[in-house]
Amino acid sequence: MDKQVHDPPSAGRPASPGCAPGGCLRCAGPRLAAGLHGAGRPRRCLRPCCSGPCRRPRRLVFCTPAGRPRVRRHRGARTRRGPDSKTSKDRSGVESVAGQDVRGILPEGLGAAVRDTAEEIAALLRGGADMGRGVPGSQWTVGQAAAHLAQAGELMADIAAGRARSWGDGTPQSLAAANERALAAFGERRAEPLAAMIVAQADACVTALEESAAGAALVSPLGPMGPGVLGSYLLTHMLGHGYDLARALGCAHMIDRARVELTLPFLITAMPRVSEPARTAGLSASYAIRLWGGGRFGVRVAGGAVAVGPRPPDRPDCTILIEPVTFLLMALGRRGQWSAIAQGRILAWGRRPWLAPRFPALFTAP
After folding, report:
1. Cα separation, 127 vs 219, whole angstroms
2. Phi, psi (5° rounding) for residue 181?
3. Does the pLDDT value for residue 12 go beyond 80?
4. In this structure, are residues 98 and 83 in contact, taking their beta carbons and an 8 Å threshold?
């Protein structure tokens, strides 16, 4: 279905010469059919004045064959207090801070998401997986990727329990080298033992995080983190490699919008640590990143430094609206931006919308 995003109509704007009845909401011009359409099929506005970038994409406008525009408000335009708000209340009236339930250490749903993701990865392996099959876009096999997940789960469980572990110096290059050394020293590649390890270590990590102190600073491979951020780190890591395993085995992946929002605490913390100095040098810009459904955060780049926070700037240079699964796959280096833009999964607007294509290159996938 073709769809065009338009600004709301301007009061008193005259119709273009020769306009037919039932004009465009943006320019009051005619709706021209793009080919033949059957009854009830949408038509696309072909006027040049409707093809420019949208400054306020809050409405999706469809044109019926009768020429009458039908307006549907975009879900992302609804105003509501999201998980990035400083304070909010759930339905039970319990106040939460930055999306974290004050009754517990972890954000609501994070522990269950980690355990469920581990079980789904284990189910992939136990379903007769060919452990020698290559993973698309990687030099690893399914067995190596599963072994890495088991080792990473053990690492996170130890960190959550307060046991010191050394794993690189925090740069993506050192982490990759540490992963290769650990894999070389770990010979298990069978599906069932690795599946059991992934589930057991994920459960051990969540249990340790739930029992940790609220203000605890846990030293992860990417620096100090609180329990909630470390749990989000584990979930992000599992979703990335779980996606790889699902692709390799021809199965459905386990990434969804709810789990993507639970990865935001880690991504917001990690992004400044994995920024590319060569790309941020000389750039001064502010971004508002909004996920379909409510998740959001802000990024400021100035003087080569990158600052990321849960609240978008009031007047960003560029606002990027992106589908959640696409966002996570791009953040983890599993997908490029151009196909997503072509499919309408990414929209950008603002005072400097041309900054949007530069944004992914400012960071290296953790």
Report:
1. 35
2. -65, -40
3. no
4. yes
Q: Note whether 222 and 287 are same-domain residues.
A: no
Position 19 scores a pLDDT of 38
Classify strands 87-89 and 218-220 as parallel, antiparallel or unpaired: unpaired
Residue in the structure block whose two tokens are 């789990």:
259
pLDDT at 93 over 80: no
Residue pair 332/238 in contact (Cβ under 8 Å)? The answer is: no
pTM summary value: 0.72
Residue among 39, 54, 52, 37 at smallest CA distance from 2: 37
- Total domains in the fold of the chain: 3
> How many residues are listed for the chain in this entry?
366
Q: What is the mean pLDDT of residues 295-304?
A: 95
Q: How far apart are CA 287 and CA 266, in angstroms?
A: 18
Res 61: pLDDT: 37
pLDDT in tens, 39-49: 343 434 444 44
Residue 287 has phi, psi (to 5 degrees) of: -120, 145
- Please indicate, yes or no, whether residues 178 and 129 belong to a single structural domain of this protein: yes
Token duo for residue 276: 């590319």
